[in-house]
Structures are given as C-alpha cells and as structure tokens.
Specification:
This protein is mostly helical and 508 residues long. It folds into three domains: 73 residues, no CATH class; 212 residues, no CATH class; 134 residues, Serine Threonine Protein Phosphatase 5, Tetratricopeptide repeat. Helix content is 61%, strand content 3%. The strands form two sheets. A two-stranded parallel sheet has the order 1-2. Strands 3-4 form a two-stranded antiparallel sheet. The longest helix is centred in the first third of the chain and has 22 residues. The termini are far apart.
C-alpha cells in the first residue's frame, strides 16, 4: 500500500523512458493490429449476402418479400437507418423489399440526415437521387376519381350503419366491384345499385348515405386529390361530430348533409368558414342572410332556383342584396360552386353546426402534423429579424405545396386564437413573408385579411399586406377591402388609416 501511495503522489520518481518502453513491449504481446475497416467492409458485406442466401436455401424459401409500410411516419433518423439496412439486401438473390412511403417525406428525411448536401446537380435534387437509386421499381398508387370517391363515401357510411357481414352490404360490395372494373364509364354507386341491394323504398340511413355522397364526392375528390385516407378522416370526423351532438342532446338540430356542407367550408376554405361562424353567431336567428343571397344568385345563374327559394328573397335578403360579403364571395369560384350545391342553407340556424365544428385546434386533416413544420411555424411567429433571415426564407422555399398551405393554416389559426387586433398580432409578419416566398398563397392571404373582425382592428391593419402581393387580382381584392374599411363607420381609427393608405397608393 505504501508503494502504491508513493506512486500516486510522486509518479515521476517511479517512471522513466526505459520503464515505459518495457511496459509497451510486454503489452504488445496481448494486442493485435486493428483490421483496416475500409479493406474489410466490402468483404463483410459480400460474406453477409452469401450467408443470407444460404439461410434462404436452408429455410426452403423460394422468394422472400419484406413489406415496409408507412415508412414516412418514422422520424428522419429511423427512416434513413431503415433504408440503409435495406441497401445491404439489394443484391441478394430471391429477396425483394416493398416500401410504402410518401416520397416528399423521405426526401425531407434525407435532407435532415445529410444536412450538408448541396441542393442538387441539374433538375434533380440529391435527396431525390438517393431515393431513385434505392427504389428500383417505383409504383405510385393512382388517386381516386370522382366515381370511385362517390362509391367509397357511400360504402364507408353504410359500413358504419350495418354489420360488415350483412348480406345486403355484401351484395352492394359485389355490385361496386363490378362497377369499378371500368371506372371511366362509371358514375359511382347510384340509386339503382342501392335499390338492388336494399330494396325500394330505400331505408332512411341508405338514403342519407346516398345524399351525402352526392354532396361530398366532387369537392372531396378534388380537395383531397383523391386521397382515400383523407376522405375517410373527413367522414370519421363528420360522424364523430354527429355523435357528439347526440351525446349533448341536440342531434335533432343537426342534419348530416348540412353538417357535411359546413365542414367542406371548414376544410377547404377556412377563412370563409370563419366569416360564416362570426356572422351566424351575431345573428339573432343564427342565419347568414348573405349566404342565402349568394345561393339565390348562384342558382339563378345556373337556372336551378325553385319558386320557394325565390319567394325567400324578401326581408333580410333584400337588406344584404348589395352586401360587400356577397360581392366578395361571388368572386371566388370555389365559394360559388359550394353555394350552388344542395342542401341550401337559406333560413337554416347554423349555430348548432358552428358549435359542433368550431374546434380551433382541429386535427381534421392533420394540419402541421409533423415536427419540421411546427419548427418553421414557431420561427414565423417570432420577431421580424428572425423571419427575414436567409435560412428562414430557404426553409419556406423548400416546402412542398401542401406543407406551405399547412404552415399558412397554422399561422392563421394562431393569429385568430390570440384574438388581439388593436396592435399587429404576432404571426402577421411571418404570414406576409410566407406569401412573398410562395406567391400561390396570395389569394388566401387576401381572404384572410377580408375575414379579420373590422370592429377590433387597429390602425396597423391596412398597411402591411401590399409588399407580399404581385398578382393583379390579389391586389385588386386587397384594394376592395381597404375601400370597404375606409367607408365603414363602426371603427373610426381603421377608417382613417385605410383612407391614408389608399391616398398614399393613389387609389383613393
């Protein structure tokens, strides 16, 4: 113990060059040289493939097919690790991998895992090259067409109403499969097909499913780009909300086709939906007279207005015939098409529908469902200096189209939730920067500005939007909003600010 203590306190007295050399020579007998990894790795890979083939032979497996589904749901690190593992098997005979994934998400994972990769050489990015070299036979599942969407919506609703082993449902499934053999000739499951399975007259739940599919098919087919998962989520959300109404005791106030129509606005035109919700909540009867006037005009232009609907054009409708909301809505093809579809909302108390749908943090279509979008949203909610950094702009430019829309939705929702408009809300600067880098969102920005609550707006409101608008229609739309603000009398501060902006731009 004394010698150990002496060594610890005074190592220099016990160590010398000769003693260290002797120790190293003795240790060398117990240590072998490390194999050079660069020389051994190809040999290991070849040996692994050879042994794996022997394993397949020993197990009497003619063809091994490994299915990896929903890889895009994994975190970037896990997704890349899985793909790198698959690469080991690429040249193994009798082995195939089927990978199901969203290409855009895998490309994002590649960029995250290899952050120093250049953008690309030529028209194809390195992230895309990585994927194309790995996936040897790409197959993109075709989107559902209009007829397929209509049949899918009908069957989903009926499946929730009857047991899956029901003979009538089985008969309808057989008819649907036969109908889909030539989808380009089909119009989807119609009354004839349903009558053949369920009899005539149709049960109420079957008739409701038929009506709802007719209402939703076209807009859901176009709005979801034929994505069956999103269509099913929409229907699941609709059924859940109807169940909530039943549990709360006001299901008799909810008609499913009307609920579906309101949810279409919520999903595909959220700014318009917010306007509807605000107007309905302020109306004594819960109606939206401007919508009634819009429906009257759109159906009249298509020659479909009934006599009873024409008679409803009195009272409140006459008061809103020249409403700015109606004129603005008529300019939107989507809103006009939405107003023209049945059922009509004229005279309908929308408050129960708004109550059951107005969940501001709705996850109906997975808005900002992935972490990389949330990080960007947080940046765009920050100070102007952070928003205008080159890195933030680069992140915006790199967004896929659907991601850009999701970021817009998230920023809009956060601004609305704050409900503070006397000073410029956090998120407005980020929203403007987003639209500057993604001009396709200009129309949506104008619609958002139009939906802002006029009585609450401060003097900041007329000024910041112009810098992000280049499209002539968008600029004209904003000028129309400013003129409306300059002529209204309920908010004098906003009126004066709007007049000054119009005078400065020479549009007064």
């Amino acid at each position: 113990m004394e010698s150990i203590s002496a060594f610890v306190h005074n190592p220099g007295d016990h160590l010398s060059i000769d003693s260290l050399t002797g120790l190293a020579e003795k240790a060398g007998g117990f240590i072998k040289d490390a194999e050079k990894e660069s020389e051994q790795l190809p040999e290991h890979m070849h040996k692994f493939r050879s042994e794996f083939e022997e394993l397949l032979t020993a197990a009497d497996i003619d063809q091994l097919v490994v299915i990896v589904d929903d890889l895009d749901r994994c975190l970037p690190k896990t997704a890349i690790a899985t793909l790198e593992a698959i690469r080991l098997f690429l040249f193994v005979n009798r082995t195939a991998f089927v990978v199901g994934a969203d290409e855009a998400m895998i490309e994002y994972a590649v960029r995250e895992h290899f952050p120093d990769l250049p953008q690309g050489a030529g028209p194809v990015t390195y992230a895309r090259n990585y994927l194309e070299k790995l996936i040897q036979v790409p197959f993109r599942i075709p989107a559902l067409g209009l007829a397929e969407t209509r049949s899918y919506i009908t069957l989903l609703q009926l499946e929730s109403a009857v047991k899956t082993d029901d003979d009538q449902l089985k008969k309808l499934l057989t008819a649907a499969q036969k109908d889909m053999l030539r989808p380009w000739k089909s119009s989807g499951l119609d009354r004839k097909a349903l009558t053949g399975a369920f009899g005539d007259p149709l049960p109420d739940f079957v008739q409701e499913a038929l009506d709802t599919s007719a209402l939703l098919a076209r807009i859901l087919s176009e709005g979801t780009r034929g994505n069956p998962r999103q269509i099913k989520r929409f229907l699941n959300s609709m059924m859940l909300r109807h169940a909530i109404a039943e549990a709360r005791g006001f299901a008799e106030d909810i008609r499913r086709p009307i609920l579906a129509k309101i949810m279409l606005a919520e999903r595909f035109h959220p700014d318009f939906y917010e306007q509807l919700a605000r107007i309905a909540s302020l109306d004594a009867d819960g109606t939206v007279p401007a919508i009634a006037e819009l429906e009257k005009r759109t159906k009249k232009s298509k020659g479909t207005a009934s006599e009873s609907e024409k008679e409803k054009g009195s009272g409140k409708l006459k008061a809103v015939a020249n409403s700015g909301d109606v004129h603005d809505w008529e300019k939107s093809d989507w809103i006009s098409n939405w107003a023209a579809i049945d059922p009509t909302l004229t005279g309908v108390d929308l408050r129960p529908y708004i109550f059951v749908t107005r969940d501001k943090r709705s996850s109906l279509m997975g808005q900002v469902a992935v972490s990389h979008l949330e990080a960007l949203v947080d940046k765009l909610m920050g100070p102007a200096l952070q928003i205008r950094q080159a890195a933030t702009k680069k992140d915006i430019v790199a967004l896929a189209e659907v991601d850009a829309e999701n970021v817009f939705d998230a920023l809009r929702d956060r601004i609305i939730q704050a409900d503070e408009y006397s000073n410029q809300p956090k998120g407005v600067t980020g929203l403007i920067e987003l639209v500057k880098q993604r001009p396709a969102l200009q129309k949506r920005l104008v619609e958002f500005v139009r939906s802002l609550p006029t009585p609450k707006l401060g003097m900041w409101a007329p000024a910041p939007w112009h810098e992000s608008l280049k499209d002539t229609n968008a600029i004209q739309g904003l000028e129309g909003i400013l003129r409306g603000w300059s002529q209204q009398v309920e908010n004098e501060t906003l009126q004066k600010a709007a007049k000054r902006v119009l005078e400065f731009s020479g549009k007064s």
